[in-house]
Amino acid sequence: MASENSAAKTYYITTPIYYVNDRPHIGHTYTTTAADSMARYQRMRGRDVLFVTGTDEHAQKVVRAAQAAGLDPKAFADRVVTSYLDAWDRMKVSYDRFIRTSEEEHKQVVSRVFAQLLESGDIYKDRYEDWYCVPCETYLREQELLEGHLCPDCRREVERISEEAYFFRASAYSNELLREIEGAPERIRPDSRRNEVLSFIRQGLRDTCVSRANEGWGVPVPGDEEHVVYVWFDALINYLTVAGYSIDDGKFARVWPPNLQLMGKDIITRFHGSMWLAMLMALGVELPDLLFAHGWWVSAAGDKISKSRGNVVDPWAEAELLVEESGCTTDVAVDAVRYYMFREVTFGLDGSFSSEGLLSRFNADLANDLGNLLNRTLPLVERYLDGRIEQPGPGAGELEEQVLAAVSRAEQGYERMDMRGTLAGVWELLAAANKFVDERAPWDLYKQGKRVELAAVLYDVVDTIRIAALMIAPVMPTVAEEIWRQLGLEAMGLEMSWDDCQAGKLPAAAEVRRGRPIFPRIDLERARSRAAQAEQEPEAEEEEAMITIDEFQKIDLRIAQVLDADPVEGTDKLLVLSLDAGEGRPRQVVAGLAEEFSPRELIGETVVLVANLEPVTIRGVESQGMILAAGEEKPLALIVADRDVEPGEKVR
Ligand code: ME8
To answer: What is the CATH number of domain 11-298?
Structure first.
C-alpha cells in the first residue's frame, strides 16, 4: 500500500469520535482499546504513530440531552467529555490526540471543506422532505422505515423533516467508489463488511442531506447561517482536522492517509464505507488504507448490548469485579478485561460478554498459564542462580523454534487485526514453556550437579517469558511492564521493542525480582455464589452507587423561594429563576422547566436549591445552582417544602 512504502510516514490510526449525549460503554471501549493495542504495537515497531480518538458533539441528541439536564450543549458536552477522558485514562488508552468537534480549529476545517465542496458543485441547496432518526442521527427515506415510522436500526420513532437543506452529491461518486473498493480487496475488512458496503454502493449512492436548520448548535454553513452542517459530515471531517488538512500541509503530507480506521459494524456501510470515502474523492484526497469494522458485543440472548436495550456492560465494573474477586491491582484488572475482549472473540465477529467467562479466563489463562510460569520460574533463578541470569553455555535455545512460531503468528495477528490469533500463539508458547520446565525439571538438574544445563534451562524459560511479555504488551501494557520489572529488565533500562522478540536476547546479569503474584487466583465457586446472590437481591446491586454520609454532606441543599421566573430568550425549555435563598441578595438559576411549568405557577414556591454547584453559563445566562425536580427525561414535579420554612434553611 502506498503509505507503507515511505519510512517517514506517520502511522495514523483513528477510532470514531463518540457522541457526548451519553457516557462510555463497552462498545466505545472495545474500539478504543483495540486501536490502542494497534498503536502500541506500531510504536514498539519503531513507527511514529498518531493515534486519535475524541468526541462528536454537534448532534441533535446532544442538544436534547443537554436540555433535559437544564444545560446549554457546550456546558453539557464539557461535563460528559470528562467521563471519556477519565475512562480512557483508566483503560490505559495511549491516544496522541483527543479531538472535540466543538474545537475552533475543527470548526474552521469543517467550514473550509464545506465551502470547497460548495464551490466545486459537490454540495448544492435543495429541499429535504423525509425522515430523521435522532438516536442514530441518520436521514432516512420513507421506504427504509419499519412499520409505525420506526428506524430500521434502533427501532425508535423517527421524525419528519421538511426544510431547505444542502445536499452532498454522493451520487456522482458511486461508480468511481465501486471501482476503488473492488480494486483494493484490503481496503475494507473483514470481507463480510466489504461485501455489505459494495452491495450498498451498487444500489447507487444517493445525494445525502448535509445540513440542518440552525438552532444555535453546530458549525454554521459558510455564507448561510440559517443552517448548520449535519453532524455526520462534521464528525467525519475530524479525521482530516487532526491530520492537519488545510492547516499544516507538511503535517498532512506526513500523516495522510490513515493507515487504519477502526469502528463498529453499524457505522461502516452508510457512513465510513460510502459517505466518508465519497467525501474524500470529492475533495481529491487519497482514501484511507484500511477501514476495519469490528462486531458487536451481544447479550447472552443475542441482542446488541446498548443502553437503549437496558443490557449495558460497564468494562470498569468488570475490572472492579476482578479486583474484588482476585485481589489483583486495578491496573492488572483493566489489562485482564482487555485480554478477555481480544482473546474471547475473533475481532470482526460478534461475541457475548459474560462476567463468568472473564473470571474463568483470568484463572485459566492468566493465573495458571502465565502467572504460574512466572511464579514458579523466578524462585528457581533465585535459589539456584542467586537471582541472576547467566550467559548460557551450549545447549540453550531449546525453545527457539516455538518462539519463532509464536512471534511470527503474533506479528501476523497484529498486522491483520487478529489479536485473538496473536494471543492464542503466545499462549501456545507459554504452554510449551510450562511443559519444558516440567520435563527438564531444573530441581533434578540441580540435585545432579548439572550446573551448565540448569543455567541453560532457566535462561530459556526466562527468555521465553521476556518474549511473551513483549508480545502481549500492546494488549496488556501494565502486565507486560510488571513482568519486565520482575525480570530485572526495567532496572537495566531496557525499553520494550518488537525487534527484541528473538530468542537469546535476554541479557545475562539481569537480576530477577520476584514480586507479589500478578494474578491471584479467584475462588470461582465463591464468585459464582456471590453472583447468584446478587441476582436474587437486586438491592445489593445498588450498593455500587452508594455514597457515604460525608459525601452526601458535601452537597449543600437549601430551601429557596422563587421570587421571579422569566423565559430564557431563544429557547422553549429554559426559565431563569430569581431565588431568595436567605443570602441577602437573590440567586439566579437557569432551569429546564418552561415546557411543564409556567412562571406564574412557580413564583412563590418554596423549592430545594443545590447551593454549592459550580456556576455555569447556559445560553449566555449565568446559573448559580440547580433546583430539584422529579423526572428523568423531563421535570414532572417540583420538590417543594410542605410547611413554611425560612429561605436559606438547610435541607438534610
Ligand atoms: O457512532 N458492541 O458515536 P457513538 C460493540 N459519533 N460495539 C458497539 C456496541 C456493542 N454492543 N454498541 C456500540 C458514533 N458500539 C458517531 C461516530 S465518527 C466520525 C462518528 C460501537 O458514540 C459502535 O459501533 O454512537 C460505534 O463504533 C461506537 O461504539 C459508538 O459510537
So the answer is: 3.40.50.620
Closest CA to 42 of 97, 96, 100: 96
pLDDT digit string, tens, across residues 460-510: 999 999 999 999 999 999 999 999 999 999 999 999 999 999 999 999 989
Matching residue, cell 503535517: 251
Which residue from 14, 17, 18, 210 has its CB within 8 A of the most atoms of ligand 1, so it is best to mutate?
A: 18
Assess contact for 133 and 266: CB atoms under 8 A. Answer: no
Ligand 1 site: residues with CB under 6 angstroms?
16-19, 27-28, 30-31, 56, 235-236, 263-264, 266-267, 296-297, 304-306
Residue 388 is given by DSSP the state B
Q: If you measure from the C-alpha of residue 29 to the centroid of ligand 1, how many angstroms do you get, rounded to a whole number?
A: 9
432 pLDDT higher than 60: yes
Cα 344 to ligand 1 centre (Å) = 20
Cβ contact 514:378 at 8 Å: yes
Q: pLDDT digit string (tens) for 254-283? A: 999 999 999 999 999 999 999 999 999 999
Q: What is the pLDDT of residues 204-254, one digit of tens each?
A: 999 999 999 999 999 999 999 999 999 999 999 999 999 999 999 999 999
pLDDT tens digits, one per residue of 325-336: 999 999 999 999
Minimum-distance ligand 1 atom for the alpha carbon of 59: 6
* Domain 345-500 CATH (choose: 2.120.10.30, 3.40.50.620, 3.40.50.720, 1.10.730.10): 1.10.730.10
Atom 31 in ligand 1: residue holding the nearest Cα: 18
What's the CATH fold of domain 549-638? OB fold (Dihydrolipoamide Acetyltransferase, E2P) (2.40.50)
Burial (0-12, 13-18, 19+ Cβ within 10 Å), 494: middle
Q: Taking the domains of the chain in order of start, what are their residue ranges?
A: 11-298, 345-500, 549-638
